[in-house]
């Protein structure tokens, strides 16, 4: 009787640790996919708008936007956001990601 309970407890512990490991892997995969999508969007913007005058003119506004965590939104930056979204309508990037991409140019 004691051995069967011990075996049952060991089996339960093994299954629980497997579930935790699987949960960790799924969570990690989700985070990595999100970061990869953000990086892809940022690199797409930075490579295609490197010489764009509207985007280049918004660099100072982008720096203020990033430094203020989105509280300061200059007119040139708003114009650049609209221009970027018009040129690449399939781009799924937030304003913060776009501002960081502008600064990375």
UniProtKB/TrEMBL annotation:
It comes from the Bacteria. InterPro entries: CHP02448 (IPR012661). Pfam families: DUF2388. Keywords: Signal. Residues 1-21 form the signal peptide. This is Conserverd hypothetical domain protein. It comes from Pseudomonas wadenswilerensis. The lineage of its organism: Bacteria, Pseudomonadati, Pseudomonadota, Gammaproteobacteria, Pseudomonadales.
